[in-house]
Design the sequence.
């Protein structure tokens, strides 16, 4: 598989996983006293994974149009976005006061009485961040081998003779399409 396609695939995987982390359970809190568990999805806790995923995919789209140097710079940016997603996945754990701010029904319960359980969303965000890091590193390492975006539209230098333009005009006058 070409590096360009692999980077695209990794970016799509990162977008899907980081996007799923927004809708899956990030934390469930048990306030005790027979009350119903409070479930908080990833988008309620933090909007960072989705934002980082969209920025990473946008950077990967721009990679298609960029030259080698800009590809390497954007690849480094994608690595940083992936590392940011990993940090968010590993460090964002709301404490008691934060939970009571997010869900007012927990405000009457003491912060130390709330039992928290992690859901699947941080794991999805972690794997999505790793996919972004891999896409960025692959871009930085293989940027010089990527096909240029305008390469397929450029004229063959051997065919561009001095009277090549006159031949095209003659073909147009004769009713032929010189672009074929």
Sequence:
């Amino acid at each position: 598989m070409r590096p360009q396609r692999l980077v695209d695939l990794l970016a799509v995987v990162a977008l899907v996983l980081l996007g799923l982390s927004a809708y899956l359970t990030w934390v469930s809190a048990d306030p005790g006293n027979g009350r119903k568990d409070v479930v908080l999805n990833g988008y309620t806790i933090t909007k960072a994974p989705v934002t980082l995923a969209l920025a990473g995919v946008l950077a990967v789209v721009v990679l298609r149009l960029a030259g080698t140097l800009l590809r390497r710079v954007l690849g480094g940016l994608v690595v940083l976005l992936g590392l940011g997603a990993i940090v968010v996945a590993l460090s964002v754990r709301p404490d008691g006061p934060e939970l009571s701010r997010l869900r007012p029904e927990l405000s009457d319960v003491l912060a130390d009485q709330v039992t928290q359980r992690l859901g699947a969303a941080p794991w999805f965000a972690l794997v999505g961040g790793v996919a972004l890091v891999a896409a960025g590193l692959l871009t930085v390492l293989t940027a010089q081998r990527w096909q240029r975006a305008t390469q397929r539209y450029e004229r063959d230098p051997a065919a561009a003779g001095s009277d090549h333009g006159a031949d095209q005009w003659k073909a147009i006058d004769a009713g032929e399409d010189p672009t074929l």
User: Anything to note?
Assistant: Residues 3-148 form a domain with the Butyryl-CoA Dehydrogenase, subunit A; domain 3 fold (CATH 1.20.140). The chain has one domain: 3-148. Residues 27 and 118 are 5 Å apart (CA to CA). The longest helix spans residues 68-91.
